[in-house]
Each structure stands twice: as structure tokens, then as C-alpha cells.
Fold:
Amino acid sequence: MQEFAWPVRVYLEDTDAQGVVYNASYFRFMERARTEWLRQRGIDHDEARERHGVLFVLTGIEAHFLAPARLGDMLAVSADVVETRGARMVFRQSIRRADEAREVLCDGRAEVACMDAEHGKPRRWPEDLLRELSKR
Structure:
């Protein structure tokens, strides 16, 4: 299966005073990639709530910063599910330069819980939603 990657350009708002991407910006980039991963499969957050009665809640995220991105860089931010169990889905993510070298700048892992939209409690991923998410 081919890895999903979302293109991101680094803007001034993403950087610190030295023109280097601020650490919190990497988490925003990863969130965008996970959202676009869903959209590529025909699901958005509102639809998941309305059709399936669920919310996607980030329960944990980690990142390992390997090299800096800078103002103006084009990046490729990946999002791929590596585990789905019960109410939990784990994404492996990376942020690379979008050039020939594809240098890895950041490796990450995000854990997302499936929550019942009405009661706010964890629930198993609905089977029909899992089928939709397994589409490419």
C-alpha cells in the first residue's frame, strides 16, 4: 500500500524568530495530514459525527525532531494507520522535505480514539466506518 502524504509549505506563521519551524507547527502539519487522509477516503469529521455518531479524539502524540524545516520549505507529511483495535487507531507519521533527497525532518506517532458523539465515551470503531477508511 502506498503511503499517504500531504504537501505543506512552511509559512512565516509556522516559524520562530530564526526562520526555523517552531515545534508546535509540526503537530499542526500532522493533524492536517490525518484530516486529509480521512477526506481521501470520503470521510470528514462532520460526516463521521452525523452518519456514524462518532468523534475522532487525539489521545496522544509524540514526535522526534531530526532536522529543521525552514521558511519557504515544501514538505510532505505522511499519515498511515499502523494499528486499529477496539476504540483506538494509531497513525505513523513523518515529515520530509518534498525534494529528491526526501530527508526525514520529524517522525511521529498519533493515537486517535473513537468517541461516541452523544455520550462522549470511547466506543469501538463502527465496522462500516472501518470499511470506508480501508478504501484507497
The mean pLDDT is 93.
